[in-house]
Automatic annotation (TrEMBL):
Keywords: Membrane, Transmembrane, Transmembrane helix. The keyword Membrane applies. The chain crosses the membrane at residues 12-32, 38-56, 68-89. It comes from the Bacteria. Belongs to the LytR/CpsA/Psr (LCP) family. InterPro entries: LytR/CpsA/Psr_CW_biosynth, LytR_CpsA_psr. Residues 241-384 form the Cell envelope-related transcriptional attenuator domain. This is Cell envelope-related transcriptional attenuator domain-containing protein.
Length: 486
């Protein structure tokens, strides 16, 4: 009976390991992240290991120490294989979450002063509501129609810009205002205590469609990605102006990455309205507007986008265990008062965010901030492509699935990962920044009110398009500044 029990136990141990090995191979194959040549190699190794263990377990005496030790090691290995299978499942799920079609949510708020007698939306038909119909006309018409459908007819008073809208509210010429929340940051530039002085009594929302991609074979053809860092904390789906704007060109054949920084104040016609405005304001009208306006600027189709906000950035850098980034000069960040030294700096998540947001410390302000953002992207790319990523793989997976939104398909991301794992290339990162002349000019999103802008030079735009054309044509490029994180 005892001999039977021992033989039965050995079969269970061996079967569990065989099943766990098969499960790992199946999960690794299904997520399409591991190159086939590696999977075949692992499969051959597993078969050889099983054969060896079979003889050690079953062809030794009943009380053989080798048989017992082999069974114990088999159980430990099976546990490890199960954990590995879970992580492959997790990786596949992460990619699917990142790439599923997402909607941006636009919110329209009815806002009153904190001491207003208006308590809720049912009182609105008895009061006058100020708004601006000329900025984002289609969206504002939608908001008005929704409010009137759900609340009843409201008495609207049109205003020409945010200054006159705020003046009407604070002087009580209107009882409430209707505001697209994407414009709140612009309103707060006029009145920095606006959010403290007011409260929202009613809100309607509108879902905006996801941005479609212009897909290519990402392992064979060069492609362009718009990186948008939105000027918000919290929910990534919030419509907001784009504070960080980077066009990334990738050539998988020459193993080059081109980083083009677009200063947030770059003065250029918005794609839809044709109104002259800062590029950062394009994001207020949705991600598609940013992509379309940037395509007009560089005269090239943009294939994909990746979007994150300040919360996302902090979480990703934290998951990576911090980054090492190169600074071109000594400075102290306004946020957090962190001391940054010329040369390499090991930064945690909060320090990294302060680093990429700083502009007050520099003579050329937003231009140096753009270069620092390029340095940070370069540093993150290098860390993700290094063996150091293995120690933070799990936390990075957890973070990225919730922190980055993109219109890459899951198969395209899987193909890029496979290419990186198969070749382990050292990417050549080249940087360039669109330059221009500071000025004060009327902005469409401000109702024609003048604001500080950067008028891009024709020469800089031409140089940008030349670099992009060269990369898209498969040529090896060398920018004037090269890799700034060196």
């Amino acid at each position: 009976m005892k001999a039977f029990d021992n033989k039965y136990l050995k079969r269970i141990v061996f079967s569990i390991q065989m099943i766990s090995m098969i499960l790992l191979i199946v999960m690794a194959y299904s997520v399409q992240l591991i190159p086939m040549k590696y999977l075949i190699g692992v499969g051959v190794f597993f078969v050889a290991l099983l054969v060896g263990e079979y003889f050690l377990i079953f062809y030794k005496k009943e009380k053989s120490k080798r048989s017992l030790i082999t069974q114990i090691l088999s159980i430990i290995l099976s546990c490890g294989l199960m954990v590995g299978s879970f992580y492959f499942y997790k990786a596949g799920r992460t990619v699917n979450l990142m790439t599923e079609n997402k909607f941006q949510t636009r919110a329209f708020s009815v806002i009153v002063l904190k001491n207003s007698e208006i308590k809720n939306e049912t009182q609105l038909p008895k009061h006058q509501v100020g708004y601006i119909s000329s900025i984002g006309t289609e969206n504002m018409s939608y908001a008005v129609a929704e409010i009137q459908k759900n609340v009843g007819n409201i008495n609207l008073k049109d205003n020409k810009d945010f200054k006159s809208l705020l003046s009407a509210l604070y002087n009580k010429n209107v009882d409430a205002i209707l505001l697209d929340e994407a414009f709140r940051s612009l309103v707060e530039q006029e009145k920095d205590t606006f959010s403290d002085d007011t409260r929202v009594i009613y809100q309607v929302t509108k879902d905006e469609e996801a941005v479609s991609s212009k897909s290519v074979d990402v392992t064979q053809k060069p492609f362009l990605v718009f990186i948008s860092g939105i000027d918000e904390y919290g929910d990534l789906s919030t419509v907001s102006r784009s504070d960080v704007n980077m066009l990334v060109g990738v050539n998988p054949n020459t193993k080059q990455i081109l980083l083009i920084s677009i200063p947030r104040d770059t003065y250029f016609p918005l794609h839809t309205s044709k109104g002259m405005d800062k590029f950062t304001h394009a994001g207020i009208y949705g991600l598609q507007e940013s992509v379309n306006t940037l395509q007009d600027l560089v005269n090239e189709d943009i294939n994909y986008y990746a979007r994150m906000n300040f919360t996302s950035f902090i979480e990703i850098v934290d998951a990576l265990g911090g980054v090492t980034v190169h600074a071109s000069q000594d400075f102290t960040t306004k946020i957090g008062k962190y001391e940054i030294k010329k040369g390499e700096n090991n930064l945690n998540a909060k320090q990294a965010l302060a680093f990429v947001r700083e502009r007050k410390s520099f003579i050329d302000g937003d231009f140096e901030r753009g270069r620092n953002q390029q340095r940070m992207i370069s540093a993150i790319v290098k860390k993700i492509g290094s063996p150091a990523i293995l120690t933070s793989f799990s936390s990075v997976l957890d973070t990225v699935s919730q922190s980055v939104e993109t219109n890459f398909s899951s198969s395209e991301i899987n193909a890029l990962v496979q290419m990186q794992l198969a070749d382990m290339p050292a990417w050549d990162i080249q940087s360039y920044q669109i330059e221009g002349t500071p000025d004060s000019l009327p902005c469409y999103s401000l109702g024609g009110v003048s604001a500080s802008v950067v008028v891009p030079s024709d020469l800089s735009i031409q140089q940008t398009t030349n670099y992009i054309d060269q990369l898209m044509a498969g040529e090896k490029i060398q920018t004037e500044t090269g890799d700034l994180d060196q």
